[in-house]
Specification:
2 strands; mainly alpha; 120 residues; DCC1-like; globular; protein-disulfide reductase activity
Length: 120
C-alpha cells in the first residue's frame, strides 16, 4: 500500500479504516464478515471493487501506473487469484517484510494521510 501511496502525488487515493464509521458506511453492501477479508475501493461514482478487482481502477488513478490498467482489466482473474492467495497467506507473506521496511511503509502511509487530509 505504501508503494501505491508514494505514486499518488495528486492525492487520488484515500485510506479509510474499514472499521471506521465512514468505512462502515461505504461498505454497507458488503456482508460484515467479508469486510476485513480484502481491501476495497469505492470510486468516484460509488462503485465498489474488492480484492484484486480493485487493481485496475487504482492503477487508472495513478499516472505512473495508468498504462497498466487495461492489462490489469484483461488479466482480472489471475490478478484476483494472486490477491486472494496473498490475502489468505498474509501472515506468512508479512514475515518476509523486515521491521525497518514496515516502519518506512507506516511512515509513508501516515505522511500521505496527513498531506491529503481534508482534501477530496
Amino acid at each position: 500500500m505504501a508503494q501505491l501511496l508514494r505514486l499518488d502525488r495528486d492525492g487520488a487515493l484515500r485510506l479509510i479504516a474499514i472499521q471506521s464509521p465512514l468505512g462502515q458506511q461505504l461498505l454497507a453492501d458488503v456482508p460484515q464478515r467479508q469486510r476485513l477479508e480484502s481491501a476495497h475501493l469505492v470510486d468516484r461514482e460509488g462503485r465498489l471493487f474488492s480484492g484484486g478487482a480493485a487493481a485496475a481502477p487504482i492503477a487508472a488513478e495513478l499516472p505512473a501506473l495508468s498504462a497498466t490498467a487495461p492489462l490489469l482489466r484483461r488479466l482480472s482473474a489471475p490478478v484476483d487469484s494472486t490477491y486472494r492467495w496473498i490475502a489468505a497467506n498474509r501472515e506468512r507473506v508479512g514475515r518476509l517484510v523486515s521491521a525497518s521496511r514496515r516502519e518506512r511503509a507506516d511512515a509513508a502511509i501516515a505522511e500521505h494521510q496527513e498531506r491529503f487530509a481534508g482534501t477530496g
